[in-house]
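Minutes, methods subgroup
Present: GH (chair), OT, SY

1. OT presented the first of two proteins processed in the latest run. Sequence and structure tokens recorded below as shown on screen.
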Amino acid sequence: MSAKPYVCFSHGKESGPWGSKIAAMAEVARDRGLAVDSVDYRGMDDPRARVDKLVAHCAPLDRPLLLVGSSMGGHVAAAASARLPDVRGLFLLAPAFFMPGYEEHTPVPQAGHIAIVHGWRDDIVPPENSVRFAREYRASLHMIDGDHRLTEQIYDINRFFNWFLDDLAGVRDR
């Protein structure tokens, strides 16, 4: 990669832009010399409005993008990847894909590399939804012993995020 990627985080429906998971992953990215930001969607319940906001935020950037999203933020990041140039990767935590009644709204991602972390005990977004998405889009999938929030698994999330960043840099053998 010529220019270092810009890492942009998208939080879930009930959280905020600098929650514990995003803050921890942002530190990992900063330690690697990457620029980071997190879009604030609080008060915005419509996923389409969130996608528009993320696209507007990232479109002016003249550098590769890494989009990271949790739950609804995962849906938003994947949907925005189809509208933004040079999205090198998507790192998604318990992404809200294939939800009942909204299956047709599950986005078709456009990214060079996709990784998903999902908890087996998630009672909000069924783990099977991430298995299905990973199979359809050949994404890396990490299933861990956690619930939807994954707050007890920040160490594991950061480990997977580091591997994801290594893969994008071409450091780790596949």
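2. SY then presented the second protein from the same run.
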Amino acid sequence: MSTLRMGKAEFIGLMAMMFAMTAFSIDAMLPALPQIGQELSPENLNAAQLILTSFVLGMGIGTFFTGPLSDSFGRKPVIYAGIALYMVGAVLAWAAQTLELVLAARLVQGLGIAGPRIVSIAIIRDLFSGRQMAKLVSIVMMIFTLVPAIAPLIGAGIIAFTGWRGIFAAFIIFACLVTGWFGLRLEETLPKAQRRPFEASKLKGALKDMLSYPVVRSVLIVQTLCFAVLFAALSSVQPIYDITFERAESFPYWFGLVAILAGSASILNAMLVVRLGMQYLTTVTLVVQVGLSGGMILLTFLTVSLDLYFGLFVFWQFSLFAMAGLTLGNLNAMAMEPLGHIAGLAASILGGTSTVFAMVFAVPIGLAFDGTPRPAAVGVFLLCVAALYFMLKLERTPRVQHGRKTD
């Protein structure tokens, strides 16, 4: 195991900023969507939502490769290459004159961000293990959860002074600051003697091995559906605030409040998971969300005061973000449990597969926005019903040995 040469507090801060680049790149764009839509896609304002999903799609694709590449070439070169690609994408988006070019640039940005997003986890694993690693990751994630809360407010402030293109300049500045800190203060954590050659055939073999486990197959489907719920919510939330409730100006504040409150779900999950189990908590969360989303669908057909309508929508938004904290970590741990022998490759494949295929569901839900929360509520309801079906099916799966079915 490598030795950490900087203080632990500084290391935690650095890793939190590495993770924060992803959240900042998504959530800071939310207040910019109306302006971008009006300028680059006035005939189809909903298309501006693709600026979020194209970034996530690129990130998902990049996730397949960044982990194995860092095992072959070292952690720092892959992070440097990823951040460089991320900044190239930001420059292209800043200069783009059409929505299609912005979307292509955001795809490039997403490919690049997969470097710091995935390799940072590998760096933590290089330096810490067991309970120490779990504790450190928990602290990093607690700091990280503050970023989605303030990113839309920062984005709105930048737009007020520079217009929407200024956000891409902010991405470059943030990336330069984090890269400089990383390059100057942290040494390479994977010695050359411990590196393994990159082989595409290993990805194929690892995927085949993973899919031989019934639990992994079921959990991968549920994880994909839960990611789709999160991304569909992120795509839809700003237009709903803006058009349905005419609260575009206060959107960053409401979003920040909901993000902070929903962040407590991860703490609640940590308190309950040992006693109740990952599978039970995930199943109960899905049952609750099916009920809440069904209620949201019903609400869109009722005549109620706008203030009550808005308050109930904000509560539903909170439940969607909290659902991520009560499901995604559990699902990832359940899928990884039988895959210790290919942990690194498995993490990349699980993350990449669930993210990419989540876009298949999230994009149509976002584009279906009709001026009300109804399309989002219907989409989330159907996704959660499907996820719940596979979780209940998992409970009926015959006993397994190392994750494989036994007859």
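Chair's summary of item 2: The first strand starts at residue 400 and ends at 401.
Next meeting: continue with the remaining queue.
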